[in-house]
């Protein structure tokens, strides 16, 4: 299993480099459980969903505490057949939990969101979940959408994606649960995620 | 068939609103062939791949002519089973061309990139193509990667995505061809795309 993300932070301010550097400081507690490599477009983070989503959340929450409008984009993937196995990415929730029926997985996902830490930073997220390589992929997608609507962070449905809104702790836990609990354990599952904070056109 | 994108423009400057408004002017020639709706996170564009990719390209190329570092993100989708049919999205390339063998489709894609207009704006793109709802999705992905490597715009492979580099005309034509020529005609195909220009850390 190979799990990771390509992550980019976009502060809409001429001082964007300082905001990015400040955000990167928030990655420090997670670096020993992730492999992190940066180029001019994005930062690769490889590791299990536990440190991976914590790191993305903390990076964005730190940047969102600055006054500037800031967004983050992440391409998140598990089980891509073209990637090698990596011990850093072992995840018991996937290997044990995914054999449960859809309704039980949705209940576990909802319980995890209720226990998410409160970070005190309000954010918006828009994301799409893709379950690849199986004929009946929409069953898992619709099951996931039901979970999202009851998660407490659901804001609205849009074409091609779902909007969440709330504290960064609950919102990123919702996305992690969507990634972990839907789609087969060994399947290829990806997320296209955008987070936004401090938008002048916040609706 | 329903085809469209959620598109966001991120200028890394305190004058970001002006850059976005200038970019939106470049959409004018395409508005009669697209349905366009904006909220605080992204702009929905619905229509056939011809005006859709032209509009995304022109929006980004206009913004990239400003001096500021700017990025664009687009979540692009065709054939999502949850979306209604829309006459705006009719596309002969999909309905006729997709019955050809993979090698012939790749050759048509390569020919289209050679005929792309030159916009005089150098850009970077990073994107992932997802072919959903079929067991052998990786055959189409690997066929697409072969096309990308020979496209003239290929820059490098990364985990989870492919980097392109070159003139905005050729780069966006490469992405359109990836979207059009790979995956079944009636299939659910999506792209997670990031474009970048004027980066201070351009590698």
Automatic annotation (TrEMBL), chains A, B:
Residues 4-83, 124-201 form the Thiamin/hydroxymethyl pyrimidine-binding YkoF putative domain. InterPro entries: HMP/thiamine-bd, MTH1187/YkoF-like, Thiamin/HMP-bd_put_YkoF. Signal peptide: none annotated. Gene3D superfamilies: 3.30.70.930. It comes from the Bacteria. Pfam families: Ykof. This is YkoF family thiamine/hydroxymethylpyrimidine-binding protein. It comes from Aquamicrobium soli.
């Amino acid at each position: 299993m190979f799990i990771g993300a390509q992550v980019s932070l976009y502060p809409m301010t001429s001082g964007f480099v300082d905001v990015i550097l400040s955000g990167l400081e928030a990655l420090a507690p997670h670096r020993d459980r992730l492999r992190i490599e940066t180029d001019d477009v994005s930062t690769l983070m490889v590791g299990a969903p536990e440190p991976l989503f914590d790191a993305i959340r903390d990076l964005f929450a730190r940047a969102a505490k600055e006054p500037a409008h800031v967004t983050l984009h992440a391409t998140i993937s598990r089980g891509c057949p073209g990637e090698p196995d990596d011990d850093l990415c072992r995840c018991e929730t996937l290997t044990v939990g995914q054999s449960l029926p859809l309704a039980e997985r949705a209940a576990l996902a909802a319980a995890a969101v209720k226990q998410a830490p409160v970070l005190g930073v309000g954010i918006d997220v828009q994301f799409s979940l893709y379950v690849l390589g199986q004929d009946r992929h929409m069953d898992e997608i619709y099951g996931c959408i039901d979970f999202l609507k009851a998660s407490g962070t659901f804001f609205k449905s849009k074409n091609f994606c779902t909007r969440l809104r709330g504290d960064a702790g609950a919102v990123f836990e919702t996305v992690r649960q969507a990634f972990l609990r839907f789609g087969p354990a060994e399947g290829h599952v990806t997320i296209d995620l955008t987070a936004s904070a401090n938008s002048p056109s916040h609706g």
